[in-house]
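Structure request: Excreted virulence factor EspC (Type VII ESX diderm), Saccharopolyspora terrae.
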Amino acid sequence: MTGVGANTGELASAANSIKGFSQTIGDLKNGVADSKLGKNDFGREHTGAADPYFEGLKKISKALEKNAEVTEGFSGNLNDAARGYEWDDSNNAERVKNAGGR
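Returned structure:
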């Protein structure tokens, strides 16, 4: 284990997994945004329900887009943390090695 109770490999692995989820969320957003339904698919008696439905799809699509962005940002933060711990550990190891004027 490296760092102060942090495993840089596990942080990086988690970041990669989370980035994959952000891409999956983005794919869901694309599926919602590209709905193949039209007003006629609601039937004559329910065409009035089509507009609110399509407005709802737009809102869901936007929410998924934002969720994908935030999830990807979180994965980037984890990667940054992993690199920070690696640098800190390396720097501290070098200091200890050089302690005592060696």
